[in-house]
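Much of our argument rests on the idea that a fold can be written as discrete symbols. The record that follows shows the chain in one-letter code together with its fold in token form.
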Amino acid sequence: MLKGFFHVPNAVNEPVKSYAPNSPERAAVLAAYSEMWNSKIDVPLYIGNEEVRTGNTKTISAPHDHLHIVGTYHLAEKSHIENAITTALTARTNWAKMAWEQRAAIFLKAAELIAGPYRARINAATMVGQSKTVYQAEIDASCELIDFLRFNVQYMTQIYNEQPKSNSDMWNRVEYRPLEGFVYAITPFNFTAIAGNLPTSAALMGNVVVWKPAATQVYSANLLMQIFKEAGLPNGVINMVMGDSAMVTETLLNSRDFAGVHFTGSTGVFNDIWAKIGTNISKYKTYPRIVGETGGKDFIIAHPSANAKQVTTGIARGAFEYQGQKCSAASRVYIPQSLWPAVKEQLEADLKSMKMGSPEDMRNFITAVISEGSFDKLAGFIDQAKKDTDAEVIMGGNYDKSKGYFIEPTVILTTNPRYTTMETELFGPVVTIYVYEDAKWSETLELVDTTSEYALTGAVFSQDRYATEEATIALQNAAGNFYINDKPTGAVVGMQPFGGARGSGTNDKAGSMQNLLRWTSARTIKETFVTPTDYRYPFLGE
């Protein structure tokens, strides 16, 4: 397992294509979008070598046109989940002992398939099923997932190359074994890259996986499974199942062979999973690995020295790209009084220029939120802000779900720094701003740190280095990914390993060696070359 026997080049980040008018990539993705829009797919359960169609189905529709059906997917019963466990454990025998470079080749091939022949299709699938603009789809479904697959191979070789010291009479080595059992991967709707990375990062290290994608991401998840199979992933290594979440989770967590969960989703669901694991702990063959990235109430704080246009752009992009449905999206903003008039004027102009509609129309910056449930929740918070005396909707605030789940980019101004939308995760195109007195910079930093249970991302804008340093220290526990003079979104694999603590997860940093190490169980081997034949030590002599 030593890296030196094989040359694995250092991974490089996949370049982002522009999709400018008349570009070949624009034509290709629009053609793929049109094809997908005008056809219907039938998504099975993938268990071993079988595509299981149970006949119990749900429809897949586009959030920006929810009456338009683009496919159906099949729901598992408990017996299917139990079969997935058995199938995964059977596949583990050969997969766990496969040479690391053979596993690496599969996922490197998957990266190249996405970078080349599947690029337009995976982007189009993300546009259709998750209502991402082409640019958001490109940086997610193509570039980030390609980066995950390539960099994880690099990290794996670095891990395997990390070996203990030996001397002339003994050889010490560490074997990085896969976990003893199966890994349960639970992925969200908002990033196709996360849906691809959570099962593959565990599988790369020799583990077998039962993967449950979000119901609202099944369209692109189906294409991912087809790509993995074309790349040569053996049957049963990753098994994709859909169904009642409570039933699926209960069945998997009740198995003696449950060895870990790789999760991205809500804090409440993760807490429930953790509690169930604790209740079942005496059942398991080994202590499970619990890795989760959950919610966020991500902040931007501007110092009086900050550049107003930079702050405004950070808000506009950080809060409203992909309709604010990133766990890293800016959701609460703290602006000094002296800067507020300029920020407000520029933000109003920016929002007026934003177009909203189908991602097929590439003039649109905003499309639909993911579901009716999400729409109704966001509309409720907007309506409440219109009524409350300590809050005011100063920009946007309109919504319409007659065709798609469209909510205008909305800005709430509050006089209460602990107003509900300053504390509650919304997951939509709604940002709340609190204007503070310039002289209360230090007090406001403390406010930022103590307002939210989450600690995922945050950003400070400042041209004063002393203020920047003060913020960096004061907010060291408030964000696992901290940005200086930039929006709090857009972490790049290999550059900004991603994850937060507090209520935002276990901070195991997706896109790093730290995360991959969680899917190994190390065995130390000591081999002595000349073995002693007498128990007596020299100190025993007279």
